[in-house]
Amino acid sequence: YQRRVRGGDHNDMNKGIFLKGDAYHRISTETVYHLSRKIEGEELDQLYPGRRMFFGRNGSHVKQNVDIFQLPQLAAWAAVLAYLASTSGDVHPNIVFEDINKITYDIHVGGMLHGHIMDNIGDYLEPNPRLEGMLKMMRDTGKQTFILTNSPYKFIDVGMSQIIGSHWMDLFDVVICLSRKPHFFNDNKRPFRRVSSNNEPTFGQVNQLVKGEVYCEGNVRDLHKFTGWNPCRILYFGDQMLADLAEPVLNQGWHTGAIIRELNEELELLNSAEYQHKMFLLNELNYLINDVQQFIPHPTAIQYLGEWCTERKKIRRELLALHPTKFGSIFRTHLTPTLFYRRLSRFAEIYTSDLTNLTNFSPEHHRFTPTRQYLPHEMHCQSQLDICRAKCSWKEAKPWEACAK
To answer: What H or E segment, with its residue span, contains residue 222?
Structure first.
């Protein structure tokens, strides 16, 4: 079940169902499973009328996997459900989940998890010279860097020492631990506290954030005040959309970037020859299906339409089967973005699988310019621009003038 549980997908806690939905809460009908059994047809219609995800309605308790800590928790939930279903047969999925949730919460908050990882840090993290190189590059161009984390300093120190070395704090201007995100961004009452040499918070007043010191708690208003940073000049990366990214981008004016670990696997598949070939066939079929409908009700047009729709359905299933899991891409269903991607595009302005990928871009000169997303009524304009772009020679001195002509 570890392989089935991914960030971005959904689980119905009352029904023990794994599923994926698009940006409009429509269920991707090829990706609905009760444990290992696929649900489709009339059974799917009975469980989810209209084939839509209902958050807290219709007897459903659908939750999205937005926290990396949920993934092993949900894998354990699925395994326990399968065991209980095979032995007793009488099991309520949400009762099992709440019990597992309590256990994992105690392990995490009680420090058992942190202690085990620190004692076996080599099993979880490895040295990453590329990260140190990226941070040095940022600082050499005048950028200031900071860490803002909910973890305790001792845990961060062990992890960063493993990744970079014991000198890791030299690469950061500000280090803030136990920050209580997302409350750090929306509760301005909690002051900063300095962390002493024995890793204990002190009780003195903090009026500035000094390089080389470690701080905990605090709030975003004081962070701006003590550092003098302009919120619109801050770029902040996180791997949890709600805890890390939602508040700073929506309410503080920060720029945000998301770390999506599943992206590497996605790109490897997208660049494979088999996937690209099938995508080419699928796109051609979509064009043919759109074009042939202008000749309906001619019998031949109706015949071709039926055959092409059948072929399109077949290719969609083949594309889904190419993914390592039964749920396909976490970024899209067949035609529309997933609900995960909708939230990602709202809370993160850029995303990457690894922070060190920024090494490939100049901190001083590179500008991330997004591709214009055309709306349905602008598609004719897009096609004309594509034709114009194909005709233009970009070796000309002023290609934009050639396009205008």
So the answer is: helix 220-227
